[in-house]
Design brief:
about 80 residues, mainly alpha, Non-ribosomal Peptide Synthetase Peptidyl Carrier Protein, Chain A, 4 helices, about 55% helix
């Protein structure tokens, strides 16, 4: 499993959604499942899975799957 597949699995788990919904266009609050609580679960899961600590600004900026990938690239998690 590559890091993108791992990230998709984290979205599925944290948001309780089907993997088919995890696309680059999926955005925060665009579905009911991605609320503030699920967002923090997702952040925690990402930090644990990839052994990183995200900056507060990065956590706030995680507005879509595409943006999460962009942010994780800064941490050399996804290229």
């Amino acid at each position: 499993m590559n890091n993108f597949d791992t990230l998709k699995a984290l979205f599925v788990k944290a948001l309780g959604i089907d993997e088919a919904l995890v696309t680059l266009d999926l955005a925060y609050a665009s579905i009911a499942q991605w609320d503030s609580i699920a967002h923090m679960v997702l952040v925690s899961d990402i930090e644990l899975q990839f052994d990183i600590m995200l900056d507060t600004d990065d956590i706030i900026d995680m507005s879509s799957v595409a943006k999460v990938i962009e942010i994780l690239a800064k941490y050399d998690v996804i290229c």
